[in-house]
Amino acid sequence: MTKTIGNPLSWLVGGTGAVLDHAASVGDTFGKAEAEAMPVPRRITVDDLRLALRKGAEDLGAFRSDVVFVCLLYPIIGAVLAAFALRGDAVQLIFPVLSGFALVGPVAAVGLYEMSRRRERGEPVNWLAYLDVLQSPKFGGVVLLALLHALIFVIWVMVADLIATLTIGADTPRGLMAFAQLVLGTGAGWAMIVIGCAVGFLFAALVLAMSIVSFPLLLDRNVGVVVAVVTSVKVALLNPGPVAVWGMIVAGSLALGAIPALLGLVIVLPLLGHATWYVYRAAVA
């Protein structure tokens, strides 16, 4: 049957109703008994990561007009957040907010996982897969895990602000140039950089272990949030080397994507999102 979008109001009403239905069953989603066997993690290698990136690039090529249209939102959101930080005299939060893409990226890529899942199965795919996820019976689990990632992001920003206060003080100079001079030209500024990067690494490692396969697993299998996260952590513990390499690939790609006014994220995020689906397929039996 041909799928049509309908008018925005009708879609919003229908989508809101679906969200409320899923929210009502969130408790069941979180702790339910699993209908399928417990997912089994398996060993992966760096070659599996290369293959995942190659397949992810193929998906990006197949869906480029769809994913670029949707992923334009991410650099726009990042720019808006940075602008709010500047206008609110919170210049010290610009880097923590932008680096937080690594913490919320797995959430933003849920629609990309679904697109790769459908393409792998030979099903017709377009950007409406993003909207279909909202009406999936598995959406309750996705929401719970997304809220957990959002909470971690908020805690990271608060911790980063505390680190800045304890090192360079509460009164930060106005403007990026003055702030950069303070940070790069003083011992307190370098202390903030070192401590902030060390703590940020811990946050990133936690999110990587929690999310390397959890979101794709929720979309693909009849499992709850706890099982998805536990399986993801097991994958990370079973494959510390490849998972660390994947983390460096993600961090390096996001850093490169953020350099040209965040516009590189339009390519980087969908590439990583599609590739993550294939990392999941290699890492979970």
From TrEMBL:
Keyword Phosphoprotein belongs to the record: no
Pfam family, one: DUF2189
Transmembrane segments: 67-87, 93-113, 142-168, 188-210, 222-239, 245-272
Presence of the UniProt keyword Chloroplast in the record: no
InterPro entries: DUF2189
Alphabetical UniProt keywords: Membrane, Transmembrane, Transmembrane helix
Protein name from the UniProt record: DUF2189 domain-containing protein
